[in-house]
Amino acid sequence: MQIRPILASLRKHRIPATLIVLEIALACAVLCNAVFMIGQRLADIHWPNAIDEQGISVVTVNGTDAKLAASDIPRDLAALRGIAGVTAVAAATSMPLDQNPALSSFTTTPDGNTTVNTSVYFIGSGGEQALGLRLLEGRFFNADEYADSGFKDFASTGHVMLITQSDARRLWPGQSALGKTLYTNEQAWTVVGVVADVLAQDPKMSGPGGRYSSAFFPLRPDGAMGDYVLRSAPQDRVRVLREALQVLGRLESDGVVQGATYAGMRDAYFADTRSMAWMLLLVCMVMLAVTAFGIVGLTSFWVGQRRRQIGIRRAVGATRGHILQYFQTENFLLGTAGVALGMVLAFGINLYLMQRYEMARMPWYYLPVSAVALWVLGQLAVLGPALRASNVPPVVATRSV
């Protein structure tokens, strides 16, 4: 197939050719960034979390007498332990993905040269087992460390803490974090254990660097502990949660008792992310459909205008395959021009999103994959009009002039 006659024909139809090129370029730019954003959102939904998500249920108690809240905790814990199937239970101030983050800044030196902004969890006795924390180095809290720990201005008055593996690597790269000290103002805590990465209370807000930035402190029963964490086998969690709500409903009759499985809490946290991914997918489908219909419409219009040209080519010996190949080659040239322009637009849009919305850089392979997708789409879209053009008999074509 000779390209020069096709280019000459396109020069005579600049406006429709330009419209198709711009349409493909816009589709390429939007498709690249939208697919990249969908991939990012799906990756967010599947962030790993080193706690027993499938076995945990959380019951929250609010609105009780603040003076009695702390003294009621041992009674409530004893009642919850009596539920069949409960393997561990503890009180805590908050949970990962709580969306009401309690953050503290820690430094590795008293003068504060290296700072991390960390989600802070205060857990009662047995909290490590109830959450299902995985210890990587060191040890969990000793019983006397719970007894000594206190709580003032949302800071532990104890002297020990657990940190996550990500924070250990970030704060002391290439070194063991065990025995190291973290500071906040004039207070200091010794790291006695490193646990596998637990998601922050609001990892979307914490950003990539703080997604797994979490610190755990021992705390004896305190009125700030509004969450009861119950751990059971996954198949028992719904029943355990139902019975826990009934038990605490009776014991805390003047309070508001609410509960959820942790899997449900995770689904709720990522509901907006999931909706965003579906919306972007819909945008991609609409964009591809509009592009395909645009190509079909303009090519059909083009074929109608070229009936004389088609008839003459058939009369001088062009086969149906030649006519079909002509329109497909023409579409491939237009698609190539549109994809080249679209790649530049896609790169520019990604740069803009990086600067304005802290979006990650789009990997290079999104561009060729989108280009191939649009080439295939263009060939499929032009196939119908091209087949109709190739089916025009030479006599009918010449009579229609």
Compact overview of the structure:
The protein is α+β, with helices and mostly antiparallel strands.
Description:
The chain has helices at 3-12, 14-45, 66-81, 127-131, 143-148, 165-171, 203-210, 237-251, 262-269, 271-305, 307-315, 320-357, 366-390, 394-399, and strands at 56-62, 86-92, 103-107, 115-123, 135-138, 151-152, 155-156, 160-164, 181-184, 187-195, 214-218, 227-232, 256-261. It has 401 residues and is of the alpha+beta class. Strand 3 (103-107) and strand 4 (115-123) form a beta hairpin. The two termini are 26 Å apart.
SSE layout and pairings?
Blueprint lengths: L2 H10 L1 H32 L10 E7 L3 H16 L4 E7 L10 E5 L7 E9 L3 H5 L3 E4 L4 H6 L2 E2 L2 E2 L3 E5 H7 L9 E4 L2 E9 L7 H8 L3 E5 L8 E6 L4 H15 L4 E6 H8 L1 H35 L1 H9 L4 H38 L8 H25 L3 H6 L2
Parallel strand pairs: 4-11, 8-10
Antiparallel strand pairs: 1-12, 1-13, 2-12, 3-4, 5-10, 6-7, 8-11, 9-10
Give the CA-CA distance, first to last residue: 26 Å
Please mark out the parts with pLDDT under 50 across 5 or more consecutive residues, or reply none.
none
**Quick check: average pLDDT?**
85
- Fraction of helical residues: 40-55%
Apparent shape: elongated
Task: Note the main attributes of this structure.
elongated; single chain; 18% strand; 7-stranded mixed beta sheet
